[in-house]
Design a protein that fits this description.
The protein is an alpha/beta fold. The protein is about 25% helix and about 25% strand. The protein is built from 11 helices and 25 strands. The protein has an 8-stranded parallel barrel. The protein has a 5-stranded antiparallel beta sheet with strand order 18-19-20-25-22. The protein has a 3-stranded antiparallel beta sheet with strand order 1-2-5.
Length: about 500
């Protein structure tokens, strides 16, 4: 989990001259970044974690070569940290893009519907509701393989379709998803095995530390340096995806190896070698299934570092499924990854009020929309708001893909009980733009004003939610209460500067 508490991301701001220096480390194992004083100057360094911090040490023999992880650097003069950060995120486009650059389809993932117990019957009921809606991917999440009366996270590694959950096999469900007009997707956690799986006991192929299998509460870990493991993963995952014709895979990772493993000059080097082979597995996936859409997940967002971001189409932004902080987290991630890569949960519940549905849907406008929840139990009135939200998302998708973000509002300091408000304004080079506004708890202002970029004549193209008005130079929003939201799509026509002709008349 290379993003566990900290991102491999650092920015230094010279507030007097408005100059920013930024760096990201592209490394899927242990990394280290430091700020320090050298005489009168401020310095920072980074890269592989050193021996003290990450137990990393490697011997390079004469004639051998070793390439360190890539560092992404920027320096610029700008208005704020977010401007400088987006210079770095611009380099994070997937290496193997399989989706149209401006087309960001909606995902449905049934995890927050079944909570790890998907079934042929349950999926059939969901499909009846989703038919005809603008959703491209239907993802079967964790649990499709679990034995009866066993939790999904204890049965990883054998990857056999559950006969109890899918009595007619997975083929029937795959056919139903396609007939409903969607591309089928499925969940795997390829690097781990659980205690209820036979794979858990194949110790000769598992990662070890001090000679013993690395064991957490519910996981052990395949050693991807082992050719036998690579063959096993190919047959049980790569060939499985190919044979069933899946067009989408969610690759999750829900535990951590820790400091490292045996097999290298140090524990940290063992970890680096193992993770290098995990990255090679990603490349194998792309080579074997070039049209496959790959989602990066690690208990939500614990692998949001550049090398993982580049090797996948999108990433789970967080495991924040239904909390009030979702729009805050989603906005924060504009600093570290492209919004087109940031898959945001929009979990719908039967008891949701209209205000709550708008709040939930509007948060997903800050990245890739992923629906889930009680979709079979929503009322026609609730679906009307969800449908309107999906239509708004489709309108702004090109701006999500290609725009530049600005954030407005006070700093939010308490995520569990957020107070205040936030707005994200995002604009594309062609003048298309949108703004998403969220009011949290605390005192609700009568109006919130967001300045618009100058030099444009603005038109409102579409709105979602209530109380938002377009003025000549600003957006004005009148929040209807705590925990509400609104969004507006805009079109900006560039105003040419006034000029004079030969007679001195203004044109």
């Amino acid at each position: 989990m290379p993003v566990n508490g900290w991102f491999p991301w650092l920015m230094v701001e010279d507030r007097r001259s408005r100059v920013f220096w930024g760096c990201q480390i592209a490394h899927n194992a242990s990394w280290q970044m430091e700020l320090y004083r050298a005489d009168d100057g401020l310095s920072f360094s980074g890269g592989l974690a050193d021996y003290q911090f990450g137990h990393w040490r490697k011997t390079v023999q004469p004639g051998e070569t070793f390439r360190t992880p890539e560092a992404i650097l920027t320096v610029c003069r700008g208005e704020g940290v977010l401007d400088a950060a987006q210079r770095m995120t611009a380099s994070l486009m997937p290496e193997n893009p399989v989706e149209e650059e401006r087309d960001l389809p909606i995902v449905f993932n049934e995890y927050c519907t079944s909570w790890g117990c998907p079934s042929q019957e349950g999926i059939s009921q969901i499909l009846e509701v989703l038919k005809g809606k603008p959703i491209r991917y239907f993802v079967i999440d964790a649990g499709w393989y679990k034995p009866e009366d066993k939790p999904w996270d204890q049965a990883l590694g054998d990857w056999k379709v559950s006969k109890e959950l899918f009595p007619q096999g997975l083929e029937q469900t795959m056919k139903a998803i396609r007939q409903a007009g969607m591309i089928p997707g499925i969940w795997f956690e390829p690097e781990t095995v659980g205690p209820d799986a036979q794979a858990y006991h194949q110790e000769e192929h598992l990662l070890k530390r001090d000679g013993f299998p690395i064991t957490t509460m519910t996981r052990r870990f395949w050693d991807f340096r082992d050719p036998w493991v690579r063959g096993y993963v190919k047959s049980h995952i790569v060939d499985f995806l190919k044979d069933y014709g899946f067009g989408y895979v969610k690759l999750d990772y829900n535990d951590t190896i820790g400091l490292g493993c045996d097999g290298g000059e140090s524990l940290g080097e063992g970890l680096r070698q193992h993770m290098e082979q995990v990255a090679a597995f990603h490349r194998q996936l792309h080579q074997t299934l070039p049209e496959l859409v790959v989602e990066n997940c690690a208990s939500g967002g614990h692998r949001l570092e550049p090398s993982w971001l580049r090797s996948t189409a999108m990433s789970s932004f967080s495991d924040a499924h239904e909390c009030a902080a979702i729009p805050i987290i989603a906005a924060n991630l504009h600093y570290a990854l492209l919004p087109r890569q940031s898959q945001i949960w929009a979990v719908l519940r039967q008891e949701d009020t209209p205000r709550r549905i708008v709040y939930t849907m509007a948060a997903a406008f800050l990245g890739r929309m992923c629906l889930s929840g009680d979709v079979t139990r929503l009322s026609p009135q609730q679906w009307q708001l969800v449908d309107a939200g999906m239509a708004f998302y489709r309108r702004i998708a090109p701006v999500i893909a290609q725009g530049h973000s600005q954030r407005f509002g006070p700093e939010i300091t308490a995520y569990n009980t957020p107070v205040g408000w936030q707005s994200v304004f995002r604009m594309a080079p062609d003048g298309q733009a949108f703004a998403v506004l969220h009011q949290f708890g605390g005192d609700v202002p009568k109006e919130i004003t967001i300045p618009l970029p100058t030099g444009y004549r603005w038109r409102a193209m579409s709105t979602y939610g209530n109380g938002i008005v377009l003025g000549e130079t600003a957006l004005v929003w009148h929040p209807e209460g705590t925990f509400c939201a609104a969004a507006i799509a805009l079109e900006g026509e560039k105003i040419l500067p006034e000029q004079t002709n030969d007679t001195g008349e203004r044109t």
